[in-house]
Amino acid sequence: MIFKKFPSDFYVEEIINNKLISKKGKYSLYRIKKINITTFEAIYKIANYFNVSPDKISFAGLKDKKSVSIQHFTLPSFIEKDLIMKNLEARFIGYSNSILSPSWIEKNFFRVVLRNVNKKEEIASRIIEIKEYGIPNYFDHQRLGHAIKYHKFIFEEIIKEEYEEALRIYFMSLEETGRKRLRKFKKAVKKYFGEWKNILKFAEGQEEKRVLKHLLKYHDTESAILQIPEYKLVFYAESYQSYLWNKALYHFLKGLGLKGYRARHKLNPFFFYRTVHPDLKSQLLKKDFPFPFFKNKEGNPDFIEILNEIEKQRHLKIKNELGKYLVNTKRSAIFLPEEIKFNFKNDNLEMSFYLPPGSYATVLLKSLVSYEKILKEK
Predict the structure, then answer these.
(1) N or C: at which end does the chain have fewer Cβ atoms within 10 angstroms?
(2) pLDDT tens digits along 142-195
(3) Ramachandran region, residue 177 (left: φ > 0; alpha: ψ -120 to 50; beta: rest)
């Protein structure tokens, strides 16, 4: 079974609260369609087109690169023109009095195609199970990209005071799209790392130039970290928190004694249960599972105990100045797809469904891919 063979196999659309759209306001609101590019790539293209700093652009959430994605973003209100370029279109739809945030999203709609399905009856039964009992609410690769590629988290390196390594990964993970010199820049980073003057010659974007000029002037890697845009530091922090949260959820669900199966993941394995008692299902659906690193955690005590133990094992402590980048939130342990529909066309499975904000359709699809793989191995 294969999913996302083509970008058109994975369509996702944000459904936002239209009551927040107004005729006047501090910010211009756009509806954007992007094809086969990441949200960060879209930010760079938008920033260049409208001649604004990337940190002035606010998205409600990240979406898959290999997809057709309908999203929204806000800009300062003096900008009202549309954007049309290859694989990216943005239409001005109104104003708002606040920047776009995840709270705007009511749900996300998905329409997907899974190809080369062999175990059709079993997969159909598994979808019905998911519809009834839900699925673990893991974070997926959209949030964990740089760590999957470089096997380290930027924010973990910062916490460990490995500032040079954090900067190395940061430079190497800069988005390449539309930036002709960036590959040469990354080669220079590999060759001359620590020789900031030599690397600066190849820098193209204002963002990396600012960091490198700071390094040249102050020779201080710790303070250079703070020259990275704040929205990126928040993302790096949330990415690392998400990884640890996934790890805790895996051990928590395994500890419940539920029957299910294990799926490989490049960072953490996923455990997918098959069925769950209605009372436990209600508990798991509550937003009762907090993010790591906050002393006064509230929520499910068994999950918190596992999370605290993971933090101790990694010997990590957050400096006060880093705390502002952390996300202090709670999340449900599982999610339920809404209005899930599916049918088979030859060897392809076509599905559509709605998911609550913050939940990942790719986790649902990976659960089906892994399940079929297990069936074929029996």
Answers:
(1) C
(2) 888 788 888 899 999 999 999 999 999 999 998 766 567 888 999 999 999 999
(3) beta
The CATH number of the structural domain formed by 10-106 is 3.30.70.3160
Q: Which residue has the tokens 């800009």?
A: 75
Q: If DSSP codes are grouped into helix, strand and coil, which group holds residue 232?
A: helix
pTM, entire model = 0.91
- Token readout for 12 is 């996702």
Q: Rounded CA gap, 5 and 7, in Å?
A: 7
Dump pLDDT digits (tens) for 263-314.
987 888 999 999 999 999 999 999 999 999 887 789 999 999 999 999 888 7
182-192 vs 163-172: helix axis angle to the nearest 10? 150
The answer to whether the CB of 304 falls within 8 A of the CB of 297 is yes
Q: How far, CA to CA in Å, does 38 sit from each of 62, 71, 82, 302, 321?
A: 8, 12, 20, 36, 29
Crossing angle (nearest 10°) for helices 141-150 and 163-172: 110
Burial class for 175, CB neighbours closer than 10 Å (0-12, 13-18, 19+): middle
